[in-house]
Amino acid sequence: MRLTDAQMAEYEERGFLVFPGLVSRDEVEALRHDLLRVAGVEAEGVIREKSGTVRTVFRVHDEESPTASPPFQALATLPRVLDPARQVLGDEPVYVYHTKCNLKDAIDGAIWQWHQDYGYWKTDGVARSDMTTSLLMLDEATEIGGCLYFIPGSHKLGRLDPEMDETTTSYKLWTVPKQQVIDIMTTFGDPVAITGKPGTVVLFHPNLVHGSGHNMSRHSRWHIYTVYNQVSNRPQAIENPRPEWVVARRCDPLETGSDDGILRHAVAAE
């Protein structure tokens, strides 16, 4: 799947693209079924809320991971998903930097503070922001359910110096300081809510300022993130690198998989 010139221009201007219904209902169900399995694994890559509820499952794309999932491996190379990601990165060879599955649990799913993803990834030794994230909604994303919010165009600011927030939630996060977020909104306008039905895919720039609110609804929701990086931009050696379940060590270029890969893996698992 190739992006049009208009879509490429929109990505460059706003920092994101939304593709409703890109992943089918059957594919969503196959992914959700296997996610429930890996969410029950006891491993470092399974992060829990203060209540004990699963918050994030990392590294589902890697066959060597305890949280490995063949359907999610297929998702990462699905032509509909991989080709647009590779295109916004200049059609350069890419690999999966990391995958994570975020759960906003009903009623008490916590916030994600305002941040840039590359704010963290640069500290991993990644020299350039030549990366992109593909987000898949496994459940409907609503405003009351704590959907993502983007500040369109904010990626043009480049990487902002972040500050570490270790107390707001159960997961440490490099965040954009409060006054800076207010200034960015004054310049670029109010954030937009990223809502959508299951199967919606969102592609967004790593310097886009974004966050999400508390889930006040009775419905839990899963978002799946596959982060692509140019092979030429793989992390350089640093002291005390984050573990492999967060930052991939294998940087082999991805080859486009088959368009029915998710469903084939789901059938094979039965």
Automatic annotation (TrEMBL):
<keyword id="KW-0560">Oxidoreductase</keyword>
<dbReference type="Pfam" id="PF05721">
    <property type="entry name" value="PhyH"/>
</dbReference>
<dbReference type="InterPro" id="IPR008775">
    <property type="entry name" value="Phytyl_CoA_dOase-like"/>
</dbReference>
<keyword id="KW-0223">Dioxygenase</keyword>
<dbReference type="GO" id="GO:0005506">
    <property type="term" value="F:iron ion binding"/>
</dbReference>
<protein>
    <submittedName>
        <fullName>Phytanoyl-CoA dioxygenase</fullName>
    </submittedName>
</protein>
<dbReference type="GO" id="GO:0016706">
    <property type="term" value="F:2-oxoglutarate-dependent dioxygenase activity"/>
</dbReference>
